[in-house]
Amino acid sequence: MGSFISFLIFTLCCSSSFSLVHSFDNTASDSLNSLVQDFALRSFIKHRHRHQTGAVYDALLPRNLSGMNASVVRLRSRRLWSKGANFGYFRIPPKTASIPHVKRLAIVYQDFGNWSSRYYNLPGYSLISSVVGFMVFDASNVTDTNVRNLILNTMVCGLPLQWNIPSYRDGLPWRVLLQRAGKNRPWYLWLIGFVVGFFGLIAVVYVGVLCLRLVKAKRIQDMERQANEDLVLESRWVGNSKMPSAAVTRTQPVLESGVQ
After folding, report:
1. Every domain of the chain and the residues it spans
2. Could you tell me where the DSSP H helices lie in 55-124?
3. What is the band of 43 on the pLDDT scale with cuts at 50, 70, 90?
4. Where would I find the beta strands (DSSP E) of 143-240?
5. Is the pLDDT of residue 89 over 50?
6. Are the beta carbons of 135 and 1 closer than 8 angstroms?
7. What's one Pfam family here (predicted)?
8. Residue 30: is it exposed, middle or buried by C-beta count within 10 angstroms (0-12/13-18/19+)?
9. β-strand 151-153 against 85-86: which pairing, if any?
């Protein structure tokens, strides 16, 4: 199924390092996922008269799938958005929404058990843990035969899904986290920011120069007005020219020879 998320934990035969791998036989795994989803839905419908929202119910699988475990839980979308969900093996953070949006959704958790090496086997590697995963589908109408698969979107909260998977080597629990995608801004946003900043700098410089010129012109006007207020001279026409003239001389002229 397209919305099924599968995690495979493996180690090299010569080391104890862990990694995640995907199945090479997509057709077989998709068929198995569809079969498990169908039995999980049947188990959910069987308990529909006494089921509780948020309660986990074990799916009744056929005998030929002995060793594989599956469980199903039904949630409201608004509860998943406000509180998230924690099912032991994995945790869904708050602010998680389904795509497309539905009123109720069901999550089918699956543990392949001893079937992991059959459907998710990688030559040259040995499994140290079973493959686990989950599927999400629309549960607004559980009696509907056409099941619509959903996708969980955690981009709003920015937190990844968290898996708690026990290690079969040392018995200690450890976690697998989905890497958070970095915030990469498109190049054109940087270009727009550079252009706006450049023209903004030019505008600031122009306004600064204009303000300096206005201040300087105002100072000159103040100096001229002060000079006119300190000394008042009369004007007389000499020919075609208008020239300032003092009204009264301050000192009387005296002949140097003393002749009167």
Report:
1. 5-177, 186-216
2. 77-83, 116-119
3. confident
4. 151-153, 162-166, 173-177, 234-238
5. yes
6. yes
7. DUF1191
8. middle
9. unpaired
Structure tokens at 5: 């998320």
What whole-number distance in Å separates Cα of residue 56 and Cα of residue 185? 41
Residue-wise burial string across 144-183, b where 16 or more C-beta atoms lie within 10 A, e elsewhere = eeebeebebebeeeebebbbebeeeeeeeeeebeeeeeee
Q: What are the pLDDT digits (tens) for 196-224? A: 999 999 999 999 999 999 999 998 888 87
- Bond into 94 cis (ω within 30): no
How far is 200 from 198, CA to CA, in rounded Å? 5
The rounded Cα 128 to chain-centroid distance in angstroms is 35
Pairing, β 9-12 against β 19-20: antiparallel
Q: Is 84 left (phi over 0), alpha (psi -120 to 50) or beta?
A: left
At residue 203, what are phi and psi to the nearest 5 degrees? -65, -40
Instruction: Return d(Cα 108, Cα 98) in angstroms, integer.
Output: 14
